[in-house]
Every structure is written in C-alpha cells, then in structure tokens.
C-alpha cells in the first residue's frame, strides 16, 4: 500500500509541475483598449452564494453583510459566485439581480478577493444589461450559463452568444459556466475553449460543473500554456479535479463546509494524500446522505441556516421549503461525522 501511495504522490507532483503558473500581470491588451484583470488569479474556493429570503419570498438584503463576515471568518472563503444556480438567479427579476449584485460588491469591499456575478439569462438583452451593470458596480468578473430553452446546437452559436454578452462589459474578466445537467447543452468544454480567446479576449476561465473528468482533463491539458482559471464545480469530487489540474473550485458546500475543504486543499498541497482523502470522504459521506434525502436549493438553505445560524429563509416558488425531517437528519449526520472522522 505504501508503494502505491508513493507512486501516486509522484504522479501528482508531476501534475502539479505541469499545472499553469499564476498570472502575475495586471493588464492584458486587446483590440480597442486595455482590459483590467484582477490583481490575483481567481483560485482556491469560491462559494456559490445562496439568496437569503424573508418568509414572504422577498430578498433579505440586510443579511448579506453578516453572510460576508461568516464566509471570511468562519469558513476561510474569500471569493463568491453570486446569482448562480445555488442563488436562484434565474428565479429573480433583473432588478433583484442587480440589487443583489450591488449588495455583494458593496459589503464585500476590502473583505472579499473576488465577487463574480453570474449574468446569464435566456434573453441576450437581459444578459447584456446585467453584464453592463456588473461592470458599472465594479464586479471582479462575470459568468454566463448557456441559454437552455432555445439551445445552441454547436460551438459557434454558443460562442456567438457569449461574445455578445462579454462585449457589454469589455473590461471585465469573463467566465463560462458549464453545467450540462441543467442546461442540456452537450457541447464539450474542451471544444468550447479551443480558440475562445480569439473571439472573446476577456475570457479568463470556466466553472466546470460536470463529472466528465476526460473533458475536464483535456481542458487542463490542452490549455496549459494559457492562464485560464479552471474551476471545478462538483464539490464531492473536488480531489479528483485537483489531481486533474483544477486551479480552484466553485460550489455550494463551501458556504458551510469551506473550512473542511480548505483543510483538504492544504493537505493536497503538502502531498499528504491520505489526509486529503479523509477530508474528501468526510464531505462525500455527508453529501451521499443528503442527496439520498433529496438535495436541492431549499435543502442547501436549510443546511446553511443550521450550520451558520444565519437565516436563509425559504426558496422561491416553484421550489418548496425543506422538511423538518431533512434538517434534523442533516444535523444528526454532521454531528456523527465530526465525532467519528475528526475526534
């Protein structure tokens, strides 16, 4: 067994050496001007934020300040992805999405490293409007999901849509949100990345929310000479993503399991794979349990409220509130795991 670990460790070290180095420059030139890049590359953990709501289904904006402090101080997470799937972004009005983006940028100032605003929408005009607004308020990046009612059937159509959105915020780093299980878009991320910066000079990377490690691995391998942020989006499989060369991760569990996941990242960087696996298995045991109970946005809100003490409220219809049985079960499972895995 020891020989097996040493062999795997050696391979992982080689993978680490092959991984793209962090980008040190602050600006990149493009046709027609200069795009400001973040001072730091987007890497490490990025919390896909929930949208706190009142009992009547209105956004509970005053909670955001407390939410920011909790992520930074309790979970060690200093990057956020706002108005995505976890944040019920597509269930919010354009006005609500704008106001929520403003709140995160304002409350995260001097506390968060990156505030990435998801501006994807079924309407190109709405997506462009949200992108322009994100630029105006000083967001650190924008991300776009593929439209999923009228779908792009090929790479060219999808890139044409993404390009039009990116053009509305020509000085803001742009990220693609790849989540085929929800969009039904089967265009491989590897294919999409091929030559994308020729079309979208502001393109900086992607959130890869899929279990296809062949596709993700080729995103890493074929773009090693570029400084893309390749952010893995399947929390319970993150260690596999790290082994393939992920530069960071975006996910919902980092809201309440960020500290444990950061410890896994530290163990991985030290090449302590047994300890890293222990943390990953901890996360998997919890996720396996709650997925079997039925895990969605409503249940994630219940877990976040349970762990943080911050009232996330119910989800917006058509989603329905998590049951008391789910919350009690999740609480018992977390306590059991803590005592058995980390005595």
From TrEMBL:
Pathway: Amino-sugar metabolism; N-acetylneuraminate degradation
Record: active site: 177 (proton donor/acceptor), 207 (schiff-base intermediate with substrate)
PANTHER family (alphabetical): DIHYDRODIPICOLINATE SYNTHASE (PTHR12128), N-ACETYLNEURAMINATE LYASE (PTHR12128:SF21)
Protein location: Cytoplasm
GO CC annotation: cytoplasm
GO BP annotations, alphabetical order: N-acetylneuraminate catabolic process
EC code(s) of this entry: 4.1.3.3
InterPro entries named in the record: Aldolase_TIM, DapA-like
Catalytic activity line of the entry: aceneuramate = aldehydo-N-acetyl-D-mannosamine + pyruvate
Pfam families in alphabetical order: DHDPS (PF00701)
EC supergroup of this enzyme: lyase
Family: Belongs to the DapA family. NanA subfamily.
MF GO annotations: identical protein binding; N-acetylneuraminate lyase activity
Quaternary structure, from the entry: Homotetramer.
Protein's UniProt name: N-acetylneuraminate lyase
SMART domains noted in UniProt: DHDPS
Alphabetical keyword list: Carbohydrate metabolism, Cytoplasm, Lyase, Schiff base
Sites where the protein binds pyruvate: 86, 250
């Amino acid at each position: 067994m020891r020989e097996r670990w040493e062999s795997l460790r050696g391979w992982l070290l080689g993978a680490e050496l092959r991984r793209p180095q962090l980008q040190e420059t602050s600006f990149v030139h493009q046709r027609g001007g200069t795009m400001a890049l973040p001072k730091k590359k987007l890497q490490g953990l990025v919390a896909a934020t929930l949208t706190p709501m009142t009992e009547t289904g209105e956004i509970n904006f005053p909670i955001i300040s407390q939410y920011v402090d909790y992520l930074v101080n309790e979970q060690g997470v200093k990057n956020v992805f706002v108005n995505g799937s976890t944040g019920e972004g597509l269930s919010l009005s354009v006005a609500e999405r704008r106001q929520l983006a403003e709140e995160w940028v304002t409350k995260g100032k001097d506390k968060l490293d990156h505030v990435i605003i998801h501006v994807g929408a079924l309407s190109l005009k709405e997506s462009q409007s949200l992108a322009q607004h994100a630029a105006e308020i000083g967001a650190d990046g924008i991300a776009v999901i593929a439209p999923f009612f009228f779908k792009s059937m090929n790479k060219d159509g999808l890139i044409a849509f993404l390009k039009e959105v990116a053009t509305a915020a020509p000085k803001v780093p742009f990220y693609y949100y790849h989540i085929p299980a929800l969009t039904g878009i089967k265009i491989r991320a590897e294919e999409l990345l091929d030559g994308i910066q020729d079309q979208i000079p502001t393109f900086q990377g992607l959130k890869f929310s899929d279990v296809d490690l062949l596709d993700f691995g080729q995103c890493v391998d074929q773009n090693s000479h570029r400084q893309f942020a390749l952010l893995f989006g399947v929390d319970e499989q993150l260690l596999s993503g790290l082994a393939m060369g992920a530069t960071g991760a975006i996910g919902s569990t980092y809201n309440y399991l960020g500290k444990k996941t950061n410890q896994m990242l530290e163990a991985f960087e030290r090449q302590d794979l047994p300890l890293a696996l222990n943390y990953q298995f901890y996360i998997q045991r919890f996720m396996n349990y709650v997925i079997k109970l039925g895990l969605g946005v409503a249940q994630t809100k219940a877990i976040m409220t349970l762990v943080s003490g911050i009232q996330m409220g119910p989800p917006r219809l058509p989603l329905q509130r998590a049951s008391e049985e789910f919350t009690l079960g999740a609480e018992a499972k977390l306590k059991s795991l803590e005592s058995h895995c980390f005595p």
